[in-house]
Write a structure and sequence with these properties.
single chain; about 290 residues; alpha/beta; Arc Repressor Mutant, subunit A; D-Maltodextrin-Binding Protein, domain 2; 3 domains; 9-stranded mixed β-sheet; two-stranded antiparallel sheet; 11 helices; 11 strands; rod-shaped
């Protein structure tokens, strides 16, 4: 295709050979082979010049498009090979999707501006399933349980904190304890995260306390909205970014949530995904420093 378009544009095999950096006999041989293959003349010979036939001009636009597509594919292959372009599919638990994952993508885009992302937010259980079924490249959540083929890498810890309106009496405290929460309606995480719910409940039962539980919510961002609406105070993870009008205070005793990147052990990570996992770990370390009190 390149030979035909080069000869049409230059008008001679020698000029086309120079343009394509090959020998003139190679150009002439290629033209003869093409014409024999398609059983149709593409050039008329007049001395040392080659004049395109009407048939050649007819197929020229299609040849140009095909060459352009071929070059685009080669460029895309090279970009993917070097980790410069592609699509990374990420599944993240809600606690990681509001702050950690966006910060990791922002960090990643500084070095890989042409890489696209598809992000799905769900529960830890669903994130694990998506990774297990190879529907996403990487998951960011608490440790996966029940899938032996999934590999996980611990990257950071979040803490349970207490969320309340900015003007709430609890906002005057440095640390919130179960005893402090007894006068107030409490929003806790439990639905689809039973282990976390049990750990929160244990901080009360150990002390013989029974809080005024009014709502259960499995997504911290929704808990913030419920707090903002005046429906109570909430125990949420420290990774989720609070909404306007809501503030958080450390909760004691400490409840730590280990955050992992998880991925399928059935196939190696691509350079793109491996580099993104590094960015998640870096963003997690930064978030950890900003949210974990000394």
């Amino acid at each position: 295709m390149k030979v035909i378009t080069a000869v049409i544009s230059t008008g001679s095999t020698s000029a086309a050979a120079q343009l394509l950096n090959v020998s003139q006999p190679a150009i002439s041989k290629t033209i003869k082979l093409i014409e024999s293959e398609i059983q149709m003349p593409l050039f008329e010979r007049t001395g040392r010049k080659l004049r395109p036939t009407p048939q050649a001009f007819t197929i020229l636009p299609d040849l140009d498009r095909m060459i352009s597509s071929h070059e685009s594919i080669n460029q895309r292959i090279e970009e993917v090979r070097l980790g410069r372009r592609g699509v990374i599919k990420v599944a993240a638990a809600a606690m990681a999707s509001s702050g950690l994952v966006p910060n990791a993508i922002l960090r990643y885009r500084r070095e890989h501006p042409n890489v696209d992302f598809a992000v799905t937010t769900s529960t830890t259980k669903e994130v694990s399933r998506l990774v297990y079924e190879n529907k996403v490249d990487v998951g960011v959540c608490q440790r996966s349980i029940g899938y032996s083929s999934i590999c996980s890498q611990a990257i950071s810890s979040a803490l349970i904190v207490c969320a309340m309106p900015d003007s709430h009496p609890l906002a005057n405290l440095d640390v919130v304890t179960p005893e402090d929460l007894m006068p107030y309606h409490l929003i806790v995480s439990n639905f689809n995260e039973p282990v976390l719910g049990a750990r929160i409940a244990e901080t009360f039962t150990r002390r013989g306390l029974h809080p005024l539980r009014t709502l259960e919510c499995n997504i911290s961002l929704t808990s913030f909205a419920l707090v903002s609406a005046g429906l109570g105070v909430a125990l949420v993870d420290s990774y989720t970014v609070p909404i306007v009008g809501v503030t958080t205070r450390p909760y004691r005793p400490k409840i730590a949530l280990q955050v992992h990147t998880i991925f399928s052990g059935d196939q190696p990570l691509s350079p793109l995904v491996s580099a993104f996992c590094d960015c998640v770990a870096q963003a997690a370390a930064e978030r950890h420093r900003s949210t974990m009190p000394g």
